[in-house]
Prior knowledge:
Glutaredoxin; alpha/beta; about 35% helix; single chain; globular; 4 helices; five-stranded mixed beta sheet
Amino acid sequence: MKVVNSFILFWILGFLVLAQARAEPVEYAARDLNGTEQRISDYRGKWVLVNFWATWCPPCLTELPELEAFHVKHKDSDAVVLGVNMENIGLEKLRRFVKERGVTFPVVQMEPAATTPFGPVYGMPTSFLINPQGEVVARETGALTAEMVETFIRKYTQAPAPGPAAGRP
């Protein structure tokens, strides 16, 4: 149990370290499995978890139900998940896979690449968290849980914004 708690603390701290580096809003657009264009800018005002995954990746498959639960819980209020399938797989085969797994969040396809508009992908799954202003505030390689994402968002939202000290211009 101590190892699990240490891992979660390490993960949160790693996410928080990345969160301190603010960037310009990122833009990305791709057609989902239904042909609808998904643009990051369409989600301004919400958190967006962009998850790079593949059907052959066991940790990716483990986290799919967690990402689905997070998406269903938050999609109508404050956050969404955008899945980016990063493998060479036929569109129909991917559609069947997503349907069989009960995934309802948008899924787009991207050719395998070491870098993305959000940053590098060192392994799968890799997730990037985009804040409501459209900035990448965190990256995580490895499986996530809904609770981990919710915890990070809560901590990030409560953290003081970087900038001048309070009371100073």
